[in-house]
Amino acid sequence: MQRLGVRDVRPGLATVIVGDSYPAHAYERRVRRLATRLGCHYVQELLAADVEEADAVAAVGKLAADPRISGILILRPLPPQVSEATLYRVLDPGKDIEAVHPVNSGLLALRRPRFVPSTPAAVFHMLDRYLIESGRDPAQTYAASTLVVIGRSASVGTPAVLLGLERNATVLSCDEHSHRAGLLYDCTRRADILIVAAGVPGLVTGEHVKEGVIAIDVGINAVTDPVDGTLRLVGDLDFVSVAARAEAVSPVPGGVGPITDIWLLANTLRAAWLEGTPSRDGSLDDSVGIDRFG
Ligand code: NAD
């Protein structure tokens, strides 16, 4: 007898942190809290800042081989001796919930993602919802918008560009080179929709955006409070001056972060669900992709 219907899945999430970055640990705490609340098996792999690359590779390889783990999140920043690309290649593509393994980033670029990375997915979830709730048709709005993304990392900026292209926006991608070349603020002033994911507090202020912009702040930066000396988290936007000109702004903290966490757990569940299915082996079978981005 075949049993049809939803089969039991037991999601397990592992996070890997190298060193003591305050934003990375703050992010890990949030994810751990949610995973625990949802009854997900959770493992944190904490490696010293001076870990040898071979030991970091071995730690990720061990998680990739652990049958209790369905999804792995490698938190950044990584120290200079540990190559991001090397660690990403060690991930089992079926557990690569942030789509940073070459197979998954390739599928994402081909518009047939197995996993949509959680932070850009959260950004577009928030944008799509906002456009609908403000009475606009998202498809028409994106097609008529200049979308500027600051930051080009493998798990945030670059997939945000791809998700913007998927929605037919006119997309400008900027990074530190654009800034050094004096091009950054020419781009931000053209943005109808601005996504900032650079990790530089106060990078964009009100004078760098046009009236009526919709701005999403992804940055998480630890700054020392000048009054009481405590550490607190801020984004990349100068919130007050940008908010004075914007139609809508998402703050940090309290913006995309909580939605990101939910997407990450949803991707973990998806990874557990895909386990043992033919699409998990990285083949380009059509069943690998999900129908729509974000
Ligand atoms: P990253 O360091 O890997 O990449 C940063 C990108 O920003 C690079 O492309 C770099 O060239 C660019 N950049 C740096 N300085 C710049 C400048 N002065 N002008 C223009 N571009 C500049 O970081 P990441 O992992 O992409 O994360 C970006 C930020 O988002 C960080 O603050 C990180 O903590 C945060 N983050 C937030 C969430 C969330 O859930 N909200 C999740 C992941 C990362």
Q: Kindly state the mean pLDDT as a whole number? A: 92
Write down the overall geometry: globular
Structural class: alpha/beta
Q: What's the multimeric state?
A: single chain
CATH superfamily of the largest domain: NAD(P)-binding Rossmann-like Domain
Task: Predict the CATH topology of the largest domain.
Answer: Rossmann fold
Low-confidence stretches: 281-294
Distance between the termini: 37 Å
Quantity of strands, as a count: 10
Number of helices: 11
The total tally of domains equals 2
Strand content: 15-25%
CATH architecture of the largest domain: 3-Layer(aba) Sandwich
Largest sheet: 5 strands, parallel
Helix content: 25-40%
Spatial extent as radius of gyration: 19 Å
- Compressed to H and E, one letter per element, the order equals EHEHEHHHHEHEHHEEEEHEH
Order of strands in the sheet with the most strands?
5-4-6-7-10
